[in-house]
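Figure caption, in words: inputs first, then the predicted bound structure.
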Amino acid sequence: MNVTLQNLTKTFPGRGKQKNNDVIAVNDFTFEIPDGKLVGLLGPSGCGKSTMLNLLSGLLTPTAGKIFFGEEEVTNQPPQNRGVGLVFQNYALYPHLTVMQNITFPLENLKGKDKLTKAQMREKALEAARLVQIDQLMDRKPSELSGGQQQRVAIARALVKMPRILLLDEPLSNLDARLRLQTREEIRRIQTQTGITTVFVTHDQEEAMSICDMIVVMRDGILQQIGQPQQVYDDPENLFVAKFLGTPPINTFDARVEAGKLYIGEEAVLELPDAETGPVIAAIRPEGFVPSPLGSFTCQLQRIEVMGRDTSVVCSHPAFTGETFRAIIDSDEICQISAEARFSLKENKVYLFRPDTGDRIRF
Ligand code: ATP
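Bound structure (adenosine-5'-triphosphate present):
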């Protein structure tokens, strides 16, 4: 089922007497989540991700704007009527109930024509448990399960009523690194298998990029960019998005365009015949540096970090906006790096931004 947001806004009143303390947690969001897709809400702490999810679930009512599930407007519908499944960061399982009882719990209160017999409830719970591969653990209590298994129970409980929309709020943050990796793949598998439109909240860009069909990058309640992960990575609309996606992060330099060339320090590093003259922030992805004895960009080598397949060359440059930056190169190119490291730059990995607003300057 597709989900449409129209000018969706949520303001929380500020504390104290001053009106201007109000927090606009979600500011005028208009976009559509296509049917059957996995969408990641992504952004730093406090950007409004959980607020957005709670607006979709019905736990919060918007200050303005509308929400549609398919053709049906659900803006003022209570959570229980929306057909959403919710999974929280802390799993929120009932400790005194078994896995089976935890999963059947949402089915207990169904009324009228939807009412199920005990046997039907057990069958539905087993079906959901099989999907997340915990059907062998149905008689255990949550305390007898690992964190990953508890998270699966929470997902099974959210799936048991076959929700129209599945909402996941930082579902992996309580898991260790290896389990996170495994569980995120599981989430993708379950989502693909069920075809349920799923919204996934995370502050981890790598997580979002690896499993989502579409990411929504947010900052301070404002939508920054929306698109397929690779497309947003390759074509960021502003400096915030460029910096938020990618590990190691993009490298930013105080630079300028002069007479059709991009200057970083005294060196003309790229020909940009169509770019406007003036100061810019030049942002270069770590994979945009190619070691080359005749390269136009010179910097000082600080150290080399070998990471197996790739090598991270840590360098400094007076125009760099921080201490040191990283170039990622193939391990067999390392012999070309000397104390004064020279690189040529891949033009499609170099982005220019306005120093005052951070908006992209296209060239
Ligand atoms: P995190 O990643 O830390 O969970 P988030 O991106 O989910 O953050 P939200 O929890 O949606 O962010 O909060 C967005 C903004 O709204 C924050 O500035 C927060 O302080 C504010 N906020 C959230 N809930 C309330 C509330 N009930 N009352 C007042 N302000 C709130």
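The radius of gyration is 25 Å.
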